Every structure is written in structure tokens, then in C-alpha cells.
Fold this protein.
Amino acid sequence: MTDAADRRFMALAIGLGARGLGRVWPNPAVGCVIVRAGRVVGRGWTGDGGRPHAETVALDRAGTAARGATAYVSLEPCAHHGATPPCSEALIAAGVARVVTALEDPDPRVAGRGHACLQASGVAVTTGVLADEAAWIQAGFLCRVTRGRPLVTLKLAATLDGRIATQSGESRWITGPQARRAVHLMRATHDAVMVGRGTAMADDPALTVRDLGIARQPVRVLVDSAARTSPDGRLGRTAEDAPVWLCHGPAAPAAALDAWRRRGARLLACRAGPGGLDRAAVLAALGQAGLTRVLCEGGAGLAAGLIGAGLADRLALFTAGKAIGASGHPALGPLGLPSLAAAPRFDLLETRDLGGDVLSLWDADPGSMPA
């Protein structure tokens, strides 16, 4: 195969893997393409809940055509025995002659062992093909494995002057229907949607994916140190239909926690921090529970806390062509910056026109973020 062909088939594998985003945690969203004589004979991506693995699906579809073929996998094939046998052994047993991967798996159970296993069995291995593209898709999994927490995308919907509600608290709707549909698509590609107590009490949101034909709903995460949000709201009433996790502090009243538990919510105790819960502890608890990608939808205090702690990895800003003025509610709470030079920075990735609203996607600049 030429380098161009390797890149073309790896791009296909990465794209297939992306179909699993929001659906496969705690596993990575992997894609696999089996190619023989320049023709795709099998392809697959990680199944819902993490099983079956992409390689297993692609090999099953390829059948005997996998013998002597090249397998393109967006992440190093696993080498450990878990709920299923190792994918590296499955590739060897199928008679694959060559394996091309984008990334080495940082999971200590794999971490080069998959590649080594293949090579020890005489399978040719090429690594690092479209590594940056694969890392973008795998960023959530990589973040959980290497940093112990999920990737956080902070979503904000604001006016031109950075307001998310009027003085009276009216916020529906700042943006139009195309922007709101884009938010639902973002929810569908994240493992969880997270809000703070203020947003939960003010908006009584459902936080589900609607009108996209999505059956598997993201986890709804409520950050409420004292568990003061009523379980009789929409989150509590629907906890048995779509998962709700309540992140609370050590001093939360037992009666309030029991009420949420009876609704079917999962309770995660987190240590306290300034003004509520320690944001890093919350994300560590979510990572320990297996989440890899979290979409934070506010409110202003939670958003500011994440940015101020250097925990907002990506920013999705929906801007409406409206102005509310200084009496409105700001999109971000206080950051307490000592100087302009201390302001966290984000790098612009792209902008999109959504029916008159503008979506701008930003990536955190690690050098400007608090340690």
C-alpha cells in the first residue's frame, strides 16, 4: 500500500469510529477497515456500551477475505483479556498480514502490547497514520486514561454582549431552532450532559436528545453540593427513563439524597471546594465512573469554575444577534483575574452559521490555563 492509500483507509476507519461517540463509554470509539487488494472487504466500529469491538465486527464481515489483508484500526488493538478476547489475537487468528494504526493505546493494559503481540506473530505493523485526526476523536478516552477525568466541552448560548438571560431570568430562547438542534446533536455525541443547581432550578431542563431518532440517551449530571434541587423536577421524574447522576457534597442532607435515590438517580459523593464542590473532584468521580466526554451546559457559576480551574477543554459558543445589556445575566460568573494577562485563552477552530446564529468552536490553550 502507498502512503496515500494508508491515509485514505485510515480516514475511513476514524470516521467509522466517530459514529460511536457518546455511545461506547467507557471504551474508546474505534473504527476498523479490512482491505484486500485495494478493496474494502470488512468494516466496523465499536458497538453501544463498548461491545463488540470494531475489529471483531470488521473481521466477522470480512470472513475468509481477511486472510492476507490489511487492517486499518484507529487505535492500537487491545491485548488483554476482558469481557472479550484480545482484538490483537483475533486479527492474528484471522490471518491478517498487516495492521495499520493511528495511535498507541495509553491504557496500561495495552500500551504497546497489542502492537508487540502482532509483530511477534509475524504481522507487519505500521503506526502513527493520521495520528492527530484520531487523537481529536479519541480525546475523551485519552483524557480519562491519562488525566483521570473526562474531556469537558463547555457550551454557552449568549447574546452579542455575552448575556444568557434578561434581568428577570427569561432565557427561552436566546438562539433559534437551528442552533438548538445543533445542541441536541452535541448531546448525542457526548457521554453526559452536566448542569449546576442554578440552571436546574431556574430552567427545569430535561437535558435529553430529542428529534434526532436517538435511543441511547446521555447521562444527565447534576452538580448540587447540598442536594437542594427538587427531585420532583424533570430530571427526577425521568431518572428511570434516562440516567441521572447527582454529584453532591459530604454535608448533603440524608433525606434529600434518599429522595433522589428513590427516583433512581445515582449518587456520587465529592469533596467540597470554594463555593460548592471541588470541580476537579467532580470530574475525577465522573472519570472513575467511566465517562469520557462531558458537555457542560451551565450555568454561569459552574462554567466559570471549570474555566478558572483549567478544566474546560473545548468551548462551543452559540451567539445570537441580540443585545440585552448589563442588567442581564452574564454567561460566565466571576473569574477573579488579577490581570488581563492571566485570562485563560482559547484557540478558534471553526465557525458555523446556524440560521442567523453563529456557532464558534474553540480549543483551550493549555499554556494559558491554571495548573
Summary: The chain has a mean pLDDT of 93.
